[in-house]
Design brief:
6-stranded parallel sheet, about 350 residues, TIM Barrel, about 40% helix, binds zinc ion, globular, alpha/beta
Length: about 350
């Protein structure tokens, strides 16, 4: 790419349900481990979500993606007290903004076997009805072997892959062993920070450098794996240029000979999952959009985004939705959500 345009960018791992978390009340206890970050923050937040909060969380997340030149999102969803229909809410919110989405409901046993059953059913129903999704699994360490096997079997039956968190923190170290017989090349393996280099898991590794730093879980060092690697944000926006710059400098921090071409390749990997995004066109505020330039240039922003032949974003903002209205409605729902968490 030697001018100021690129295809539409792809966020390889997002949580559209978490967009309203910003500014949430502090948890009852200060989390000191990855497990307690999940317990004190994310599992309290996802339990408090209803479908109305989810709608505006997803719409704001999709809007922010579009405003970052990201036209396709790989989403991983959980809302244990509002499971049924949740994947439709996410798909509709993205459709309203014009962003492509491949979602998944994260099956888990942490809310009992009934919760796992309902999660499996939401994946099955949504995909059978023609929805664009993978089967989601939260992570091996919150699932029994039986639940892992059922989710993997459902994905095989439906002809889709699985989207799962793998070895994000030390708590999930056993995942490599427990998933060995189940993974296939169409699986998406998020994080893999504590996954040994000589693992036998098949699938694409989703690298989320900002989230890993924020959770103090360590550096995944994705260049050590032979699997394909794709960049994500783990729910902290969908600015893939920022994610690329961070992925590059993290790699450089442990290997001074690393070049931006490797991290740019991880960004390009998104087009394997969303080939249609290759035909989307983003015009940027910077020229040339070359990895060596972008890695050292903060503040690059899109001026115009065209997807499927339609202008979705230009100098006056998004074309399908009113950005101010989306932000105002999202703020109202954030107030409800934060009150429920107080
Ligand atoms: Zn995640």
């Amino acid at each position: 790419m030697t001018d100021n345009t690129t295809p539409g960018l792809v966020c390889g791992h997002h949580h559209l349900y978490s967009v309203l978390a910003r500014g949430m009340p502090a948890p009852p206890m200060v989390p000191t481990t990855f497990q307690s970050i999940l317990e004190q923050i994310w599992w309290r937040l996802d339990s408090a979500l209803d479908l109305e909060m989810l709608e505006w969380s997803a719409k704001l997340g999709a809007l922010e993606a579009l405003e970052s030149g990201t036209t396709a999102i790989v989403d991983h969803h959980e809302s244990p007290n509002a499971i049924e229909g949740s994947l439709d809410v996410i798909a509709r919110a993205c459709e309203e903004v014009g962003v492509r989405v491949l979602t998944a409901y994260g099956v888990t046993d942490r809310n009992g076997s009934d919760g796992a059953e309902r999660g499996l059913e939401e994946n099955r129903r949504f995909i059978r009805e023609g929805g664009n999704a993978l089967v989601g699994i939260h992570a091996a360490f919150t699932c029994s072997d039986e639940t892992l096997e059922r989710a993997a079997g459902l994905a095989r039956d439906l002809g889709v892959g699985v989207h799962i968190h793998v070895c994000e923190g030390p708590e999930d170290k056993a995942a490599a062993q427990r998933l060995r017989a189940l993974t296939r090349p169409d699986w998406l393996l998020a994080h893999c920070v504590h996954l040994p280099s000589d693992h036998d898991l098949a699938g694409t590794i989703l690298h989320n450098p900002r989230s890993n730093l924020n959770n103090s879980v360590g550096y995944a060092e994705p260049a050590r794996f032979s699997n394909p690697v794709m960049l994500g944000t783990d729910g902290i926006g969908a600015n893939m240029i920022e994610s690329f710059r961070l992925a590059y400098v993290m790699q450089r921090s442990t290997n001074v000979t690393a070049t931006p071409d490797t991290a740019w390749g991880w960004l390009e990997q998104g087009w394997e999952l969303f080939p249609e995004a290759r035909n989307d066109s983003v015009t940027w505020s910077y020229d040339p959009m070359d990895p060596w330039h972008i890695a050292f240039t903060p503040g690059i922003r899109p001026l115009r985004v065209v997807a499927g032949g339609e202008v979705l974003f230009d100098e006056s903002g998004p074309t399908r939705v009113d950005a101010a209205e989306v932000r105002a409605k999202a703020r109202e729902q954030a107030t409800r959500l934060h009150a429920a968490l107080a």
